Amino acid sequence: MDGGPILSLEALRRLERAAAGLDLMRRAAWAAADWVSARAPAGAPLLICAGPGNNGGDALHAARELQARGYPTLVYQPIPPGSAECAEARRLAEDDGIAILSALPERAPPPALLIDGLFGIGLSRPLDAHWQEILRRLDRIDCPRLALDCPSGLDAYTGQPQGAALRADHTLTFLCHKPGLYGGPGADLAGSVELAPLDCPFDLYPAAEGELNRPSAAALARSRDSHKGSYGAAAVVGGAPGMLGAALLAGRSALAGGAGKVYLCPLDGRLPVDPAAPELMVRPVDEAAELPAADAFAVGPGLGQQEQAARLLEQAIARPCPLVLDADALNLLATRDELAERVAARAAPTVLTPHPAEAARLLRSSVGEVQSDRVRHVRRLAERFNCVAVLKGAGSLIARPDGFYRVNTSGGPELASAGQGDVLTGLIAALLAQGLDAFDAASLAVRLHGLAGDDYRAENGGPIGLAASATAPRVSRALNRLLASG
Predict the structure, then answer these.
(1) pTM
(2) Which of 37, 39, 41, 475 is the least buried, fewest Cβ under 10 Å from its Cβ?
(3) Closest to 389 in 3D by CA, of 470, 326, 297, 302
(4) DSSP H or E stretch at residue 455
(5) 471 sits in which H/E element
(6) What are residue 299's phi and psi, to 5 degrees?
(7) Do residues 407 and 395 make contact, with C-beta atoms less than 8 angstroms apart?
(8) How far is the CA of 424 from the CAs of 28, 218, 407, 458, in angstroms?
(9) How many helices (H) and strands (E) does the chain have?
(10) In the chain, which stretches have pLDDT less than 50?
(11) Radius of gyration of the chain (CA)
């Protein structure tokens, strides 16, 4: 997966205007033709779907180039061009003798590849019933599909279909990445995504609002002359009666993530030692106990929402060290305004790791609203709480208080099991304890957690069966692999 900036839609339009003399439409067509040529043998029949706008112009120019390379090409354009650029592309295609149909032929054999250039990122309203039926019919054609820039009908920034969307196996996106290709329904609709920057000079690019999540692990490289004190102490606070497992998972993950020492501070004091990880230093926190000295705290896994939990959270917020808040710590913030205000006023770094329901509670919103525009809501969280916010889910998002964000592309449904959030929380705490800044610690932890899931899928042929307790060792392997690769 290539890297690259994420521009807002408005900034992307500015870039297109600045690059007007570069003939981006032709460059997009060449990029599409190169993509096809690298994957399909000459002579493979193609169905190219062209819309009325500039995305349709990309498709029509691609049809011309592919026909010149020896691909039998049929163009389907349901309505006439609506832009001058698309009209000119159609005229040239017709001059080249390319068949352009306004209706799909009945009972035609499926093509080797369908290229979707009906609607690009400019789609600003839901598709009407006529277009929805066209997309449904195309979706029934049994062949691979390549989307140009984004699948038709998909909002490339929210990942939400606009009434309907044409599912792609692959998406070749242009100039910059778009977050909606990785999150929400867009993660499934876009298939595998590749960026074609179209050789656009980088000095024309406006400031990015985000990027794909590719943090470096180089700061974690270890010298031979080191000891456990070189890698910080992390403390996990949680584990109320009946929920001790959550704290254990976070603590074990903090060990796997490289923290030199890990304190486990359960509210359930009946556990003297963790037999599976006796390295964990168990320090139960009863009504009078104070939290241990540590370089980073993770509060929330199995914490509960009783008064003792609120008192411990208040203690942790007051500590002048990095803090990760998850699970019931987030639920307490959502219901106790004074705690929320103290978090927002912290001078030390804070990381919040909500899933969509927790994010909705923190923002006094609904899950549907959060999921309808995940980027906007993760940025709201980061600003509201003066923190690094991680909005978990497909294409997890990591945002700073200034609004800059990263889109994670590793992992998938193999991580949709109980306790995986606790593993992530402990991992972030371990990276904070080792001195990474909050944005990079959260970003690297999210990526590593996803890579552990990717490894499981590759080894087991599918996503089912990865228990949270088996994830932490995979995280260690993924981290060491990143370090070894430089």
Answers:
(1) 0.95
(2) 41
(3) 326
(4) helix 438-460
(5) helix 471-485
(6) -125, 130
(7) yes
(8) 39, 20, 16, 21
(9) 16, 18
(10) 1
(11) 25
